[in-house]
Design goal:
This protein is of the alpha+beta class and 215 residues long. It is 25% helix and 41% strand.
């Protein structure tokens, strides 16, 4: 069975050096990806990512080209490993294109959901990366993450989340208004690639980020 790969690119209003730090320094990666990150740079290095027990792992780093690109391998030695590659290209001194490619996906059947879920997740994470690189590079940040597993189909889970949060209809650029407990948060939706995935700026909380992943 042939393989396919997910590809996406974003333009970031930041220098190549700043974008490189955003994807290779643990404290910077933790702002937009996993809340717990350990990163050992260079070929032969590794990245450790954790969203909590049962959602963590370590991957070796390969194909390292300082300041330009690198990859990590998920499931090294398995029958179907996946390779995640980041590469950057300077458009000018203050604008950088970041490209992400993840390969190792099969076609058809049960693999379609995996491919779509991974793609939607990456698009949301990349929106978070772009926002942080443009606004909070080098700043101290706290990444708060909570996750629950519920025994219902994904569309129903997302409908429940929206209802519980009193979340308005999600669309790129739309105003955000949601209620988390007694607190009303307001801001702007930056990117929502698919129902259940939302990256938003919360102006009522110091322009911090609020993201949802229902998958």
């Amino acid at each position: 069975m042939s393989e396919r790969k997910f590809e996406d690119s974003i333009e970031i209003q930041a220098s190549p050096e700043a974008v490189w730090k955003a994807i290779t320094e643990g404290s910077e990666i933790a702002k937009w990806f996993a809340p717990i990150v350990r990163f050992k740079p260079g070929a032969g290095g590794e990245i450790y990512l954790s969203w909590g027990p049962g959602a963590e792992g370590t991957a070796p780093i390969v194909d390292w080209e300082e300041g330009k690109r690198y990859s990590w391998i998920e499931g090294e030695g398995s029958e179907r490993p996946k390779i995640v590659e980041f590469s950057i290209e300077a458009k000018d001194s203050s604008t950088t294109t970041l490209r992400l490619v993840q390969s190792g996906f099969l076609h058809g059947g049960k693999f379609d959901d995996e491919f779509e879920t991974t793609g939607s997740g990456w698009r949301t994470f990349l929106a978070m990366l772009k926002y942080n690189a443009e606004n909070f590079a080098g700043a101290v940040a706290a990444h708060v993450w909570t996750m629950r597993i519920v025994p219902v189909p994904t569309p129903e889970a997302w409908a429940r989340v929206r209802q519980a949060l009193e979340l308005s209809e999600a669309a790129d650029g739309a105003p955000l208004r949601a209620k988390i407990g007694p607190v009303t948060v307001e801001g702007t939706i930056l990117r929502t690639p698919k129902a259940g995935y939302v990256c938003s700026k919360v102006t009522s909380a110091g322009d911090s980020l609020l993201a949802f992943f229902v998958e």
